[in-house]
Amino acid sequence: EIVLTQSPATLSLSPGERATLSCRASQGVSSYLAWYQQKPGQAPRLLIYDASNRATGIPARFSGSGPGTDFTLTISSLEPEDFAVYYCQQRRNGTITFGQGTRLEIK
Amino acid sequence: EVQLVESGGGLVQPGRSLRLSCAASGFTFDDYAMHWVRQAPGKGLEWVSGISWNSGSIGYADSVKGRFTISRDNAKNSLYLQMNSLRAEDTALYYCAKDPSGSYFWYFDLWGRGTLVTVSS
Among partner residues A32, A55, A98, which is closest to B46 by beta-carbon distance? Predict the structure, then answer.
């Protein structure tokens, strides 16, 4: 099973700052990585797929990079609505696993 | 409106069974693979199972293999999860999720609001 490790567990930043979230895979997953945002009491929302492609309706301040084993989700300038939990997910070899999540909180 | 609506959750004793349903609307259901993803209270996301558009490809997480069975009825635009031999660790909010692929397991681009399953005596 491919294990995804997200860091940091919690990130405290202020609106307007730049956020960098990391996801490391235990083995290479090519570009088969997605990012999701989940707010309290809501279902997750797809942000990024195939490492760097924004999903429909996702603002340009969200960007992703890869491929390989080390991936990054960057939010260029934080808006108040961006404070949430973020998960990465891989789809290599027909199996799907998620990272444990990064909580982005207001400083 | 494009949506997924789950139902069938509830309180069940360990060792018993439960069947979840997901009703899809607003898109061509039989074009896409579908999945169940769960989230234990206060925890992260766990993929449970997926099924391709024609049920030709099915996959399960190791944690549920042999106990859970996924199925779909394209005529009814519905996805199901039969859960047998339930354990306390199966307690979670179960989400139905749509895949942008028809035949493969890729990502989840549409989610329902979830149905809560609680396994307890």
Answer: A98
User: Tell me, what's the pLDDT at A93?
Assistant: 77
| Cα separation, B84 vs A103, whole angstroms | 34
Mutation target to probe the B interface, by most B beta carbons within 10 A, among A35, A45, A96, A102 is A96
Q: Over the stretch B60-100, which tens digit does the pLDDT of each residue have? A: 999 999 999 999 999 999 999 999 999 999 999 999 999 99
- B98: nearest CA partner in chain A: A46
Tokens of B96: 């139905």
How many CB atoms sit inside 10 A of residue A50's CB? 16
pLDDT tens, position by position, A29-87: 999 999 999 999 999 999 999 999 999 999 999 999 988 899 999 999 999 999 999 99
Query: Smallest Cβ distance to A89: which of B100, B107, B112?
Result: B107
Judge: A46–B108 Cβ closer than 8 Å, yes or no: yes
B114: nearest CA partner in chain A: A43
DSSP letters spanning B15-78: T--EEEEEEEESS-GGGS-EEEEEE-TTS-EEEEEEE-TTS--EEE-TTTTTTEEEEEEGGGTE
